[in-house]
From TrEMBL:
Family: Belongs to the short-chain dehydrogenases/reductases (SDR) family.
Pfam family, one: adh_short
Domain of life from the UniProt record: Bacteria
Domain Ketoreductase positions: 10-206
Phylogenetic classification of the source organism: Bacteria, Pseudomonadati, Pseudomonadota, Alphaproteobacteria, Rhodobacterales
UniProt-recorded name of the protein: SDR family oxidoreductase
InterPro entries assigned to the protein according to its UniProt record, in alphabetical order: KR_dom, NAD(P)-bd_dom_sf, Peroxisomal_Beta-Oxidation, Sc_DH/Rdtase_CS, SDR_fam
Amino acid sequence: MSDEKPPTGKVILITGAGGGIGRGIAVEAAKAGAQVVVNDLGATLDGQRESSAAAQTVVAEIEGSGGQAVANGDDVSDPEGAQAMVRQAVDTFGRLDAVVNNAGILRDGFFHKMSYENFDAVVKVHLYGAFNVSRAAADVMRQQNSGSLIHMTSTSGLIGNLAQANYSAAKLGIAALSKSIALDLRRWNIRSNCIAPFAWSRMTSSIKVDGPEQQERVDRMKEMSPDKIAPLALYLASDDSAETTGQIFAVRNNEIFLMSQPRPSRSVHRGEGWTMASVRDQAIPALKSSYLPLDVSADVFSWDPV
């Protein structure tokens, strides 16, 4: 990061910050002068609780470099856990300026093989987790008349991916949640934005390699450091981003993208109304050229990262 330190004096809560992207944001936030609540449940990749040592390790790293941080081991999928981590931020540092909803788990599987339990668990951590923590933080931020909520979405939800119906549904849901938060809370100067990160982390390390093409993709991803996500996240947490809300960004190595949001792309009109036959013979032929293909994320981001 540069010598600029926009988050100086800010209190930032980062969920899932025991490793990967969350850790990178926490460490850089502390370097930039923020006081950080490092939340991590200490769970396995599929969400089984292990230990909260990961959060404490990051806190020790931050404190060893002269920063200020506290560890939190509460569960984002539990509303009371979300309230507890927000309360800890306020009790420890006196306020809460920004939240990074980064915590997540994976339980990949093709849709026809996916169990209710695996769908439910992933949605609970990603989507409900983002709601729970943001909802708890909103009460504090409304009293302060300021705040920034930053949510990790994914191109798996924004575009699509194989064998990730649970993860994709949660991540696209987060984008809609963020937009609603931005609309509802702007009167209190509370911003809400999304980041779709490309980075090699514990979650992406679970990608199955089933051929040379997939291996090549994984090898490229290994070159994308999770630390690359921090500059945009910290900008969104800073006062400099006061006019940025309701947006979806993606970060891939040294590239930052502003992602589109659904809008009408083409329309047809028939004064006398439609029948099934006229839909078949007129509407669909007119619209079909604008159909979107069944892309996956790698099809859309098909060039090498820079």
